[in-house]
Amino acid sequence: MDRVLAVVLAGGKGTRLEPLTRDRAKPAVPFGGAYRIIDFTLSNCLNSGFRKILVLTQYKALSLQRHINRGWRGLFSWELGEFIDIVPPQQRIDEHWYRGTADAVYQNIYSIEKESPQYVVVLAGDHVYKMDYHDMLLFHIAKNADVTVGALPVPVETAAGQFGVIEIDKDSRIVGFEEKPAHPRPIPGDEKRCLASMGIYIFTAPFMYEQLCQNAARPDAGHDFGHDVIPSIIESHRVVAFSFRDANRKAEPYWRDVGTLDAYYEANMELVQVDPLLNVYDQTWPIRTVHPNLPPPKTVFADRGEGGRCGQALDSVVCPGTIISGGLVERTIVGHACRINSYAVVEDSILFDGVDVGRHAKIRRAIIDKGVCIPSGVLIGYDHAEDRRRGFVVSEGGVVVIAKTESSEQLFETPP
Predict the structure, then answer these.
(1) Is pLDDT larger for residue 416 or for residue 85?
(2) Which residues, 6+ apart, have CB-to-CB distance to 33 below 8 Å?
(3) Which domain, by its residues, includes 338?
């Protein structure tokens, strides 16, 4: 394990998640109230025994850097050779920003070689799942592979135009790889599903260096693992697929690419179900994050009479520091230090940290970013035309998204 280095790619723009990624990188977007998306990949590394990690950042990385510095650095012992390093683009090799996943790793090849790893595990920092990467490493070694690709069966219609699609032989060797095909080839004998790449790669280190240098030497080529590097080597080298083994320990495998507003919303809403598919309460596979120094959540007022105030949270996740003061929260993710004031109603929504919901306000099917103050009596999610007039984003699935702003009052001003 001392010869394993994990490289987490955390530099994507996340444009499909705007406005949530307007001021932060996609891996830094909150998830499930208490977490950031990247916490799941980093927790997988730690739970798998991988304690040498490089996090490659690029766009809008400040909040991600602060999150990792506050919540993760203390879990590693520098004296024992453990580390989690945040590596911004250094342009040591190339003056360009990263032009793809392979180029991101190539431009940091000096930092990787300096650690003298035998194996390099390349991971995406923007997916939500639980996986023991050590099992995949043992599979890679047993197969004497040059590259091992994490793979997951998904519905054909889900994969179309969204995922790299893999074809394998009976020995798990990859014989075909298409990046985001419009018409994915299904698994033989299973016309409804295809084998999708999870964006997880294990390389034998010397082989990776060789391939990245060859790819970089072709200026007219693409510089992405899935689109360029993997397809170019499947005929000449040992490239195998590792079937996803879910550490979530539920009947159905859990892996989510929360790359769109609706996918992000649905993945969060699953957590308020009675028995959600993603089990974040499993202490055998803890999901670590920053734990701010805040008091426990609190509900106040219990006047159940007609017209009375009664602070309630039903089928919801409520984080520390939040006070539900005579309002109703139902089927909602409530972040840290929020305030739900008297007679307010919040349903089927996601509130980031520090949201203040005014008296008599009503919110449904909404995502409200950090620190936004909702004035008294405002309705959100009841009239999408009005929501759009105010400048809010309404997703294809009808979810209203309110971004951060310097002055929340400006969001609700009546235009002249």
Answers:
(1) 85
(2) 317, 318, 319, 333, 334, 335, 336
(3) 298-411
